[in-house]
């Protein structure tokens, strides 16, 4: 689009991460703005059908975390063999959703980010009903093959969804 940016029309099949046999069709238009790389791409999408309802799993995870005597702390999800323990799978899924927001906000036409690993996650004690997690994640930038440390603070409640309240790219030495 002249003087505005590049617009792409996409047709995708989305796979449910909890039920690999469940898919829905999605169409999307993505507009990358010209010039200012600090503006997230504009995205309009339509989904045909519904993915599996996760209320039961969400509430089970929420209750489990709320009932912990000490705040959750974990490292290296998945581990060096690519394994994720069943009790850490919801923590990984939450990071996947939250990192999707970070990736969207920081994407350009020349980048392709993917969540590679949760380096560290720590639950933050709160006085309200939300769960808060402080994540240090590793994003794999597929084009340059860089591994980029990224810090993100995530709020979550089963009835209110996921919110990334703070995120920032970290220097490479943050991994040491």
Total count of strands: 8
Cα-to-Cα separation, first versus last residue:
44 Å
| Biggest pleated sheet | 5 strands, antiparallel
Q: What share of the residues lie within helices? A: 10-25%
Number of helices: 2
Coarse shape: globular
- Parts with pLDDT < 50 across at least 5 consecutive residues: none
Query: Strand content of the residues, in percent?
Result: 35-45%
How large is the radius of gyration?
18 Å
H/E element string? EEEHEHEEEE
Pairing-aware structural class of the strands and helices?
Answer: alpha+beta
| Overall average pLDDT | 91
Kindly report the spatial arrangement of strands forming the biggest sheet.
Answer: 4-5-6-7-8
Task: Write up this protein.
- By secondary structure, the chain is α+β, with helices and mostly antiparallel strands.
- The chain has helices at residues 55-66, 89-106, and strands at 5-15, 23-33, 42-48, 73-77, 113-124, 131-141, 146-157, 161-169.
- Strands 4-5-6-7-8 form a five-stranded antiparallel beta sheet. It has a three-stranded antiparallel beta sheet with strand order 1-2-3, with no helix packed on it.
- Strand 1 and strand 2 (23-33) form a beta hairpin.
- It starts with a strand and ends in a 7-residue tail after the last strand.
Lay out the secondary structure.
Layout: E1 5-15, E2 23-33, E3 42-48, H1 55-66, E4 73-77, H2 89-106, E5 113-124, E6 131-141, E7 146-157, E8 161-169
Antiparallel strand pairs: 1-2, 2-3, 4-5, 5-6, 6-7, 7-8
